[in-house]
């Protein structure tokens, strides 16, 4: 836990932060360094402090404005993004922990299924990363939730003695939910503008925590109908997939810096 503590002192500050804090020369060094790493050394050498300030004029002005959590829903574009991401964050965590906390129903060793559930996260995260780069964020996010919801609902109709099939469907659903988590973390950071990005990330993470708290309560519904928890988890994931498909695609799109940028992208 304590070993990484000294590392931040070697992390470079972002060029944006340096410019906003009147350290344009240091910002220029960072930008030229990044340009060289990206094979754009000649282009980087052409940048001057004046050019940097000119292109960041809007950000310099917006930095003087105080932003709160209310700005996540103040304008139509921000409101649209926040509502959709709330559904995605909540349902991903809700279904993920709902599956993880109901291992005994698969009829195999809970220790074995726990190992399998943990192991599937690794390939799932790699696949989602590749998918986001080729298919885009929106398709990856929506399909992960849609497939996971379908797997959870399909498991309801599989007889309890078909343990292999039930376990396979659950593992596939869990893997897709893990992929959904990977995607939504990146997607949220790209959708929200720089001036309020961390507030948006924090709000989304909070919605995920609410989903994880609600998940165990749903398991008690099996006293009324054994299939009911699975129906709720599966339906939540599918509904969230619909919301995800209404989000704007961010693959190869410049990240918004201000709320005005978000509104212009609509």
From TrEMBL:
SUPFAM superfamilies: MFS general substrate transporter
Sample GO molecular function, one term: transmembrane transporter activity
Source organism, top-level taxon: Eukaryota
GO cellular component, one term: membrane
Keywords attached to this entry: Membrane, Transmembrane, Transmembrane helix
Membrane-spanning residues: 81-100, 106-127, 139-157, 227-247
Membrane topology note: Multi-pass membrane protein
Intracellular or extracellular location(s): Membrane
PANTHER family associated with the record: SOLUTE CARRIER FAMILY 22 MEMBER
Name of the protein this chain belongs to: Solute carrier family 22 member 6
